[in-house]
Amino acid sequence: MQRADFGFFHRLRVRWAETDPQGIVFNGHYLTYFDVAITEYWRALGIPYPSTVERFGLDLFVVKATVEYHAPAHYDDELDIGVRVGRIGNSSMQFVLGIFREEAHLISGEVIYVAAHPQTRQPQTVPQAMRQLLGH
């Protein structure tokens, strides 16, 4: 995985509260970093995440999240989190993520969401308008 694999990045600085006593980012925080970056990706597309319910009549639920650790991030590092849509199925969508410190690739991951009816939480087909917005 390389920076060139991504067209969107969200930058954040590692805060002290996110590190362990050695100043290394505690592993669970990478999922939060992914969530923040995906939220900013939606915002960059013109749809702040909560607006998906109103605009498309569906909600998105995480059904799978994976994190692969290649190298640690440290306190005060500036990290660039790359986000792209890997694939869209009938009711699911895969976000592929990479965390970089300059050119160094630290973390890989994926988050898979299922589109569902907001009240019943039953899976729904990803609407064509959403597919187009996401470039699929």
UniProtKB/TrEMBL annotation:
<dbReference type="InterPro" id="IPR050563">
    <property type="entry name" value="4-hydroxybenzoyl-CoA_TE"/>
</dbReference>
<feature type="domain" description="Thioesterase">
    <location>
        <begin position="22"/>
        <end position="106"/>
    </location>
</feature>
<comment type="similarity">
    <text>Belongs to the 4-hydroxybenzoyl-CoA thioesterase family.</text>
</comment>
<dbReference type="InterPro" id="IPR029069">
    <property type="entry name" value="HotDog_dom_sf"/>
</dbReference>
<dbReference type="InterPro" id="IPR006683">
    <property type="entry name" value="Thioestr_dom"/>
</dbReference>
<keyword id="KW-0378">Hydrolase</keyword>
<dbReference type="InterPro" id="IPR006684">
    <property type="entry name" value="YbgC/YbaW"/>
</dbReference>
<protein>
    <submittedName>
        <fullName>Thioesterase superfamily protein</fullName>
    </submittedName>
</protein>
<dbReference type="Pfam" id="PF03061">
    <property type="entry name" value="4HBT"/>
</dbReference>
<dbReference type="GO" id="GO:0047617">
    <property type="term" value="F:fatty acyl-CoA hydrolase activity"/>
</dbReference>
